Amino acid sequence: MSIIEAIIIAIVEGLTEFIPISSTGHMIITSSLMGINEDEFTKLFEVCIQLGAILAVVVLYWRKFFDFSRPAFYFKLILGALPALCVGYLLGDHIDALLERPEVVGITLFLGGFVLLFVDNWFKHPTVHTDEQLTYFQAIRIGLFQCIAMIPGVSRSAASIIGGMQQKLTRQLAAEFSFFLAVPTMAAATGYKILKHHEVLTAHPENMKLLAIGNVVAFIVAMLAIKFFIGTLQKYGFKIWGYYRILAGAAVLITWWMHRG
After folding, report:
1. At a CB cut-off of 8 Å and minimum separation 6, what does 96 contact?
2. Residue 32 and residue 21: Cα distance in Å, rounded?
3. Would the CA dihedral through 54, 55, 57, 62 be positive or negative?
4. Which of 37, 190, 207, 230 has an alpha carbon 20 to 30 Å from 49's alpha carbon atom?
5. Distance of CA 56 to CAs 15, 24, 152, Å?
6. pLDDT tens digit sequence for 146-193
7. Strand, helix or coil for residue 128
8. How far separated are the first and last CA of the chain, in Å rounded?
9. Distance of CA 72 to CAs 64, 131, 134, 235, Å?
10. Based on the structure, what is the number of domains in the chain?
């Protein structure tokens, strides 16, 4: 992987991590187009640069993250993260196998697009307007929705936001709780991945440098993407992302089918 390739993948991660279009799916597509998707470091890099993206959430919402007078907030995040961490640990090898299949990304992007076209009409009467009103059981249920995103192309943010809206959260609160939920979920998943494949990082002297650059780029881009997403969500809802997913999924499937032949 070159520095330019690392920057491109990090930009994709930062842009897509918190928008309901699947960061993993887009990074798989990007690395496939650049011909580096089979490289072991690339696979690890795509997971590790999530740290830069989740740091953007901590910085943007630092008042909430460091308000230690509200311990219930942290318990809800931990409970919400547990289902995905357990499923990820138990089914890790199966998930890794799916990460190498662009057609899976295409199918889930395409079908998920239709879900986003109608999701605003499904949940019109929210009753939970603040995270203080969110119960522990609701946090766990949102965490169960997040498990669906283990399938590449589904989108962790889409699954957890829809889970939040299904639990009567307002659209904006569901999006923000999805951002918060990413911090323990992705930090734990990244830490586990590094421990499991640490030899890949030290296999080449440039790897740590590329990882550092990738995290910085992902952090900066994610800061901008979060603000942009919240603005478009309040104005247009999810439909715009639904149309994008349908077009992107169709493009991926057509390209995969042409190359397959």
Report:
1. 43
2. 17
3. positive
4. 230
5. 12, 18, 23
6. 888 888 788 888 899 999 999 999 988 998 899 899 888 888 888 888
7. strand
8. 28
9. 12, 9, 10, 31
10. 1
Note whether 9 and 211 are within 8 A (CB). no
Which amino acid, 138? Q
Residues in the chain, overall count? 261
Point out which residues pair with 128 in neighbouring strands: 169
State which amino acid sits at residue 243. Y
Element (H, E) at 91: none
Domain that residue 193 falls in: 3-260
The two structure tokens encoding residue 43: 């696979």
**Read out DSSP for 130-154?**
STTT--HHHHHHHHHHHGGGGSTTS
Percentage, residues of the chain above pLDDT 90: 34
